[in-house]
Here is the input.
Amino acid sequence: MSVPKRPEPARLQAYNVARNQHSVSGLSSGAFMTVQLHLAHSASFVGAGIIAGGPYRCAESFRNTALLAEDAYALNALYICMTPLTPKTAPNAEYLAELARDTARAGRIDPLANLADDRLYIFTGSRDEVVSSIVVDSTRRFYEQLGVGSGQIKYIDTVPAGHSIVTNNIEDSPLGTNQPPYLNYGGFTQSHDILEHIYGDLQPPATGLSAALTSFDQSEFLGDDAACASMGAFGYVYVPKAVQEGATARGVHIVLHGCKQGYSYINYAFGRADSANQPPYGNRYITTTGYNHMADSNNIIVLYPQATGDDDNQAQNPDGCWDWWGYTCANPSEPDYYSKDAVQIRAIHAMLRRLCGD
Here is the structure.
């Protein structure tokens, strides 16, 4: 019996999409990247959903914590941006807001005035043991420092959830769990709450999907930077049938998974990929978190870029996290992981532009 030839990955297509009505959300490293993407291209977005994520350029809170910049950023990421010992050692929202202003003045991100009318959903589980609630609170204060009114921010810190996106799937982990796959049952669908808060007047989620989730070739968006991008060969997109048939999409919602949640995530043992011990949950974030059903009934396209785990000399990222501390940077002493020029941000925005026919 002959082995069937593996088909070439599809090319991401263009559709009729309303301009600059897009949004983005993510969990953990995906939440940190959500903040970075939101600020880098704020002209494109009307809102963001941040689950267990810290403020912009958080990993640069204290540059003098180590002699080498890359070591300082890694230490900041671990001990300030994830698990600070006290509120006084948590991220300084005022300082990071000023850093964002400096970045905007340098033209490395869109003007911050674009944020003024955006709507934000910011969530921290009260039992999160991975990213402390005091870190997520600093994200709320960071946005307020940049002029986003408190009435536009839905801030939730009372749900006894562990480090996770909350679902209404009874087969998911108990609500207070802090372990992969970071999908916890809480009796509600958090992705629906995010989209409802950002867009405000949505129809109820569809009971069934009108179209299929499809994969596309991510590599064409990476170019010469593929070796250090730590992004998978494939991304995923959900396009409601009505949009496929010519209806104008309300916008594109970009969904950024957390660490160990990409489709191609593989455990590493002693620095080597342990494919025999690959977790069985690689596509859960794109299929069971509820985004597609809400998007289907409201003509929203959902884009799922994918980070992948790497453990070599070009991208030290074994857990498949999005870059919010500088691992993709060619020059670690002058990181650009947070700007329009950052390889991951550049690739994701190029995907967005393709979907919109730009």
In short: The chain has a mean pLDDT of 93. Residues 22-355 form one domain. The chain is about 25% helix and 15% strand.
